[in-house]
Amino acid sequence: MTWQMWLAxxxxxxxxxxxPGAGAIQSMATGLTHGVKRGYWSIVGLEVGLMLQLTLxxxxxxx
Length: 63
What we know:
This protein has 63 residues and is mainly alpha-helical. Helix content is 83%, strand content 0%.
């Protein structure tokens, strides 16, 4: 790879790594508009969904 390709790759990787994901944005928005308690339950819901997805993959149902 040329140095220009490496530079483009690392530039894109840094932007992707430091930008927040959809779950983080949703949790922040819920917390700011509805308060800390609703924001907390938003985070709990995201984590429960993650655990469910990991469980399905672990038993072989996720592809």
